[in-house]
Amino acid sequence: MAEAGWNLVYDGFEPSQERLREALCTLGNGYFATRGAAEGADADGIHYPGTYLAGGYNRLATEIAGRTVENEDLVNLPNWLPLAFRPEGGDWLDLPHMELLDFRQELDLRQGLLERRLLLRDAEGRETSLVSRRIVHMGLPHLAAIKVVLRPENWSGRLEVRSALDARVTNAGVERYRQLGSRHLTTLERSAFGDDGIFLVAETNQSRLRIAEAAVTRVFDGADLVSVTRHAEDEEGMAGQHFVFAVTECRAVAVEKVVALYTARDRAVSEPREAAVQAVGKAGRFDELLASHVQAWRSLWERCDVALENHAPTQTALRLDIFHLLQTVSPNTVDLDVGVPARGLHGEAYRGHVFWDELFILPFLNFHLPRVSRALLLYRYRRLPAARRLAGEAGYRGAMYPWQSGSSGREESQTLHLNPRSGRWTADNTHLQRHVSAAIGYNVWRYWQTTGDRDFLSGYGAEMLIEIARFWASIASYDDEADRYDIRGVMGPDEFHDGYPWRDEPGLDNNAYTNVMAAWLLCRAGDVLELVGAERRRELDGLLGLGADEIALWDRISRRMRAVFLDGGIIAQFEGYDRLQELDWEGYRQRYGDIQRLDRILEAEGDSVNRYRASKQADVLMLFYLFSHEELRALFERLGYPFEPDSIAKCIDYYVKRTSNGSTLSRVVHSWVLARGDRARSWSLLAEALDSDLADIQGGTTAEGVHLGAMAGSVDLVLRGQTALEFRDDALWISPCLPKELQGMCMKLLYRGHWLHLQIGCEELTVSAPDGWAGPGHIGVRNRLHAFKAGDVLKFSCRRVDEGYRPEPNTAARERVMAEGE
Ligand code: BGC
């Protein structure tokens, strides 16, 4: 398999690209992450250093447009990066002040290592080369380290070093939020310790989260520690020190800064300052830390890599996506109480909130790091009481999860939204996306299907599914004339539509995605009661006050939920969709070029996107993304609606044409649904989805944080999409069909406790179960179910799938042959 595709390399310094590169070169370990800003950089027009702790939120209130707006933010923590150099009395060796003779920045994905190589010339003609290397330790999640190897190329003299921990930072990474409160930190203590250490303790001013950082900065000449005299840099909100030592022309010295970050929430510590000070004291040198860090990454890549044959650019993009996913959520996340922020721990967009994006993220984790999936689901379980409260306040039963979730599980969606095009603040109704609760239920179910984790399902998942089902049953209203159930006043995933042009109050009726998801969920709530066993069932009945009538009602609603159709059997996005106007897509494209954010364009024109058949992102098509054709057919048949295979292609074509892809999630869905019908289009959408952040296709948003849903969703598109992996009849089925762009790929999948190694070539598929395979296992390949035993290597012939390929017919009469390979 290909060895290329592990490095992201930038030659040359581009100030206008710096914030984008900082986001893409973020280093993190699932506990905290730090943007790839240069060590000497402050937040200015070019740079934005940022450090974020998983779950590190704080709330502030601000007066905006005559209202008090409360916002909860993922707090930018004290900057631990500052490490600056200058020839004594000269200018600091940073980019804006120096002549840059050479520059190269490289992110090594395999090792989780960020390296920057610079050759600088100052005003006096002194040339100095610097190679800085940085890690945020994957195995020791409280530690990070920088090593700068510095060489005076044509001078000798004295070099001054400044090292600091800086709590004067604010949350200022997103231009649109500038009017909102941004000072979250109060410094409590700062001081030097030992011969070479500094520490700083800060606290968030509302959530009262105490954070301690400690750093030791040392100079080495080869293996020898260089002794230096240090002076404290005393500034409010900053712990710093500087020192001077002699350097000699062409002789390299290494300056190493090792940092520890702890908070009052950490386990197995007495107090964060003490923990941080002790940790840096014992951490050892940079190279030792690097070795154990690389080992931790090696184990992660062993499980999680998806290797493509001879496809270097796609490979790099794919690994970059896996890399950032694992930096946001990793084995270090397992003991934390956190969800997945939509924009990673990479920036401040969406304030670090957790949306429905887990829907795109969990499939990959389920197959590779199920413990992490479980932890993310437990974040939701702990917020079940808050979701019950939300439902109750809105007049419903059960659990209604918030559209945006942060620390406590209350609704964190903003109520006002700034359109940067018009400068106007408009009402933000996105909290009406009640479908988030269905996504959480869906995630519980797929996690259970992939892992067979009965303990989770019985102890937590069942309660979540039941309470979510209850919510759907109570929000649905019965139309006795039509004998149908309606869900009114909600929003679907498409955020362009938050209401009808002809109605004052926000919300739409019978959004197809929401209704079908609700019907599906009501069925699963019924199933789970069967699965948990009689003992647990009795407990749940008692604890939740479940009765036969309620369960019968779920069954009934799951058969009579309304779906609305357009001509030709196309599922209508919502009731009344047919009354909307067609948009002049070509005209808008010509006038504006990039029309991804059509909502902002139209609002700035004094119009409203609500008037048009124009979607920001996949909505109806989400159904084809989340469910196999067989599952959908069963769902529609249960609802008493026809499900003609012909109408699927028409439906896909209809909505793909009317979607601006203003959310990066959209391309993932479109690529998926086109995978079997239009291979070329599907591949180009996959390539765009993979490039979402790398190429910053939204023109500026990646700098504010990566789009984790699109990243994980793109990887999943390769993984599940190209293998046509699905669950059917309580088994895992694959039916690989590589597009012509791919020569081969290999990956591992953890399925119900068994690791499967898949090697997919143009002509052959090899499925092997490593030695040690325990119980019996089965996997479906194409239309046959195959039994596995320890050490088996099964080979199947593959066909190259070209244009015009149509799926094999999904028939109930599908052959079910048990075989020991072929
Ligand atoms: C999308 C949502 C998504 C959110 C966070 C929005 O632009 O429309 O579907 O959940 O971004 O990623």
Automatic annotation (TrEMBL):
One of its GO terms (molecular function) is carbohydrate binding. It comes from the Bacteria. Residues 319-715 form the Glycoside hydrolase family 65 central catalytic domain. Substrate binds at W356, D357, K616, Q617. The keyword Zinc does not apply. InterPro entries: 6-hairpin_glycosidase_sf, 6hp_glycosidase-like_sf, Gal_mutarotase_sf_dom, GH65_N, Glyco_hydro_65_C, Glyco_hydro_65_M, Glyco_hydro_65_N, Malt_Pase/Glycosyl_Hdrlase. The keyword Zinc-finger does not apply. Residues 10-265 form the Glycoside hydrolase family 65 N-terminal domain. Residues 725-784 form the Glycoside hydrolase family 65 C-terminal domain. It holds the Pfam family Glyco_hydro_65N. The active site is at E495 (proton donor). Keywords: Glycosyltransferase, Hydrolase, Transferase. SUPFAM superfamilies: Galactose mutarotase-like (SSF74650), Six-hairpin glycosidases (SSF48208). GO terms for biological process: carbohydrate metabolic process. Belongs to the glycosyl hydrolase 65 family. This is Trehalose and maltose hydrolase (Possible phosphorylase). It comes from Tistlia consotensis USBA 355. The lineage of its organism: Bacteria, Pseudomonadati, Pseudomonadota, Alphaproteobacteria, Rhodospirillales.
